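Supplementary Methods, section 5.1.

A reviewer requested that the exact input to the structure prediction be made available. We therefore reproduce it here, unchanged from the version used in the analyses.
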Amino acid sequence: MGSASVAERVAAGRSARDALPRRTHADWAPAPDRRDPVDMLQEQCASRVPDLVPLRYGRMLVSPFTFYRGAAYLMAADLATVPNTGLRTQLCGDAHLSNFGAYAAPDRRLVFDVNDFDETLPGPFEWDVKRLVASFAVAGRSRGFDRSDREDINRTAARSYREAMAEYAEMRELDVWYSRIDLEELFARFAPMLTEKERERVQRNLDKTRHKDSLRAFEKLTTMVDGEARIVSDPPVVVPVYELVGPEHRDEVTATAAAMMRSYADTLVEDRARLLKRFRPVDAARKVVGVGSVGTRAWILLLLGRDNEDPLFLQFKEAQTSVLEPFLGPSEFSTPGRRVVEGQRLMQGASDIMLGWLHVTGFDGIDRGYYVRQLWDAKGSADVDAMSVKVMRAYAELCGHTLARAHARGGDRIAISSYLGGKDSFDRAMASFAETYADQNERDYAAMTAAVNDGRIEVLTGV
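The structure derived from this sequence is encoded token-by-token as follows.
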């Protein structure tokens, strides 16, 4: 890409279009030898914490939409059965609409971006677009929207991606790199489109997001015991480390924690590594997060700076093999934690200053990779369950644009834009694919429900 001229990159996009016309993206049907979805999910959970797997299944079975959130592996396998454009970029790997959201940039301004990279890997750009647009089809069904409204929303997401990519194709390299989506400016832009009630809801959400930081986590997750801050036990969601391994392993836990901190600090820029040294570890716990991530090992670590009014909560989240790797090949990075972090740094306009990774031997003697970030750093997400058709359409436009910006950083934006073209062929194909795949998602959801009823899998609900 770096040595190719603009004309050559445009030609590459057109060549890909000739090889795989845009309209063909609408075509998808389950392969005749498609594997049982429950078997695949159980296979994926083999490396996860066994006692948390029923909780993962329980969260997935809340609705077809929550099932979709946990079924990235199934969709990757399905996408691998059809031809692709060959136009590669850095993929999020799980670009559903709930994996976009707000957080605080290093300058403390709220920005909107892709915010989950557990599955990130280079691959065909359209895999992310299909995952995103289909998520709107599934979410639209969960909200009871009719097919006409859903298809309009689906097309909006694809159109926004295509038009934004055309904009980025015309920009200078540094301008693409500096580009980010400021949430305050965004709200001002979309506010006139909302009802007063919707504006109030968004404003409350923004206010809540601004205050969701380590101080808020300290208030919510800790208590004082003999003058020391301790993380409150709330099993199975939050379990302090000594409840898991017993106080007799205190020396082993301390040694492992010290090794983790040293390994992690080595991946930080020097000034941030020095900042980390100003905090001392106080307590740690296992904390269940999300839907698709449930069962992976996720730890929270409480550190204190000058006093109890100066907390820092870090999240150490296990990074496993990306669901894309069986179909797109292994990552170039030897540790999955680095795969996640490098993908995030490439795709996001601004990233958490404490973002890093480590590879360490755990209490059980097994080597595992983790990535590290602040637990709460003004992170917030949209309330899908409260979205009207109009709001979801606006959100689809926002997510499509945001994904294009991320892809423009990680791939050849000129070739991709050339492939997409100026007409709506791609948009219509994506909207059609999304509805077809939403049908498949419902069949897979039904298969998992049947597996529960048959006693084939165990679930834990209401947590």
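Residues 425-453 form the longest helix (29 residues). These observations are discussed further in the main text.
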